[in-house]
Design brief:
- This protein is of the alpha+beta class and 427 residues long.
- It folds into 3 domains: 146 residues, Defensin A-like; 124 residues; 147 residues, Serine Threonine Protein Phosphatase 5, Tetratricopeptide repeat (Alpha Horseshoe), CATH 1.25.40.
- It is 62% helix and 8% strand.
- It has 18 helices and 9 strands.
- The strands form 3 sheets. Strands 3-4-6-5 form a 4-stranded antiparallel sheet, with helices on one face.
- Strand 5 and strand 6 form a beta hairpin.
- Helix 11 crosses helix 14.
- The longest helix has 55 residues.
- The two termini are 23 Å apart.
Length: 427
């Protein structure tokens, strides 16, 4: 599939990352029933992150002809015979009016409709709000047919609310644990006072001991009582007088002081704290999975990838992990089904090499069944114009020379040889 840069001002920039398919048209019928079919309108609209209904309607408004887009079949029709160059020029006007940011000319914009029934474009790159000319016929059509709301916004709000509630519950659990420990320390001090009182009462009953012994005993009892009182006052001191500090004794005291429910609460909290220590790479993988679960388009997924601050190699690895982690037999079929997401992340040759390296890294951890399907995976991506022959051969030669991903390179050897033989036959 031939690609071109979005926006005529970026036509000659080889490093521009926002691309769309070149328009393909077909004249059908004859006489009064002649019409123009824009064959790849769905793919163009996805690249622009706009409904294909809008672009088709815009052509009809500008040409003064009947236009129709079928949501079920994806067929875009404009009555009359129209030149491809003319339609491409109208598409460029549509991009300037309804896609590009008026401030930075970036196509990463979102259509917003205000309560006053005005349309603006919010730029994801610079945050600028571009006003749309409401005198345009298409503007009134958009008001009557607003774009679908993204599902991810509400889900993120719900996740934030759940996170706040979880933090509150965690703080309450911490307070409960502190309270249990404090009660346990007080209980230990009161038991010492009870033991001293019982000893004094026993000696009084037996009447044993001289007056000096009684004075000594009473002084000892008073010292014990003073120490117990000081232990109650000092809530922050975890060390008790004459306490066995061995590991076994400490374990027994913990079992006595903490109830089963409290212990389980402490374990849960520590587990949640461990789970929270995620890396930016893991966060990106989860964000990609969330987008896919919300049926995100390839263009929407491309926005998620481009907004990441991670290096391009890590972004590609995260995409491949989110799409195919745990794959086994049938790995190639999964790649064929999801190759549109891979195509969105591969705008140039440098990105193709990153994708091939991600395949090699994935093969280092996948099962033997998935590893056998590497040649088929490369064939699907080559036939789908996601990977080019030069990139595959370059990756293979570099992998063999460096001795990396040897198993993946070995499995891909026959396919690379086939590419080279096909090239030599053409020559």
């Amino acid at each position: 599939m031939a690609l071109q840069n979005i926006g005529a001002s970026n036509k000659d920039d080889p490093f521009y990352r926002y691309k769309m398919p070149r328009m393909l048209t077909k004249i059908e019928g004859r006489g009064n029933g002649i019409k123009t079919n824009i064959v790849n309108m769905v793919d163009i609209a996805k690249a622009l992150a706009r409904p294909a209904l809008y672009t088709t309607k815009y052509f009809g408004c500008e040409l003064g002809a009947q236009s129709k887009f079928d949501n079920k079949t994806g067929v875009s029709i404009v009555n009359g015979a129209h030149d491809t160059t003319k339609l491409a020029g109208l598409l460029e006007k549509f991009i300037r009016k309804y896609v590009q940011c008026a401030n930075c000319r970036n196509p990463e914009t979102e259509v917003l409709i205000s309560k006053k029934q005005t349309i603006s474009l919010k730029c994801a790159a610079c945050g600028f709000l571009s006003d749309v000319d409401m005198r345009d016929k298409l503007a009134n059509f958009i008001l009557k047919n607003p774009p679908e709301e993204k599902k991810g916004g509400r889900d993120k709000k719900a996740m934030r609310r759940a996170e706040k509630e979880r933090l509150k519950e965690g703080e309450a659990a911490d307070e409960e644990v502190k309270k249990v420990k404090k009660d346990a320390r007080k209980k230990g001090g009161s038991s010492k006072e009870t033991t001293a009182a019982k000893g004094a009462a026993t000696k009084k009953k037996t009447g044993g001991g001289s007056s000096d012994e009684e004075r000594t005993s009473s002084s000892t009892h008073s010292e014990d009582a003073d120490f117990a009182a000081s232990a109650d006052d000092d809530d922050d001191d975890d060390v008790e007088w004459q306490t066995d500090t061995s590991a076994e004794a400490a374990r027994k005291r913990m079992q006595e002081q903490l109830s089963a429910a409290t212990a389980e609460m402490v374990i849960t909290l520590s587990t949640e704290e461990t789970e929270e220590r995620t890396t930016p790479y893991d966060e990106l993988v989860e964000e990609i999975k969330a987008s896919l679960s919300n049926a995100a388009t390839a263009a929407e997924l491309k926005v998620v990838l481009s907004s990441s601050a991670l290096p391009a190699k890590d972004v590609m690895d995260a995409l491949f992990a989110a799409l195919f982690r745990g794959a086994g037999k049938g790995f190639a079929k999964d790649v064929q089904k999801k190759k549109k997401y891979l195509a969105a992340a591969v705008p140039d040759e440098a990105a193709q090499l990153l994708l091939l390296q991600a395949i090699g890294a994935f093969c280092g951890t996948c099962s033997a069944e998935a590893l056998k399907e590497v040649p088929v995976v490369l064939k699907y991506l080559y036939d789908g114009d996601v990977l080019e022959e030069e990139s595959i051969v370059q990756w293979y030669d570099e992998a063999v020379a460096a001795g990396e991903c040897s198993q993946a390179a070995e499995n891909a050897r026959r396919f690379v040889e086939w590419l080279r033989s096909a090239a030599s036959d053409e020559e």
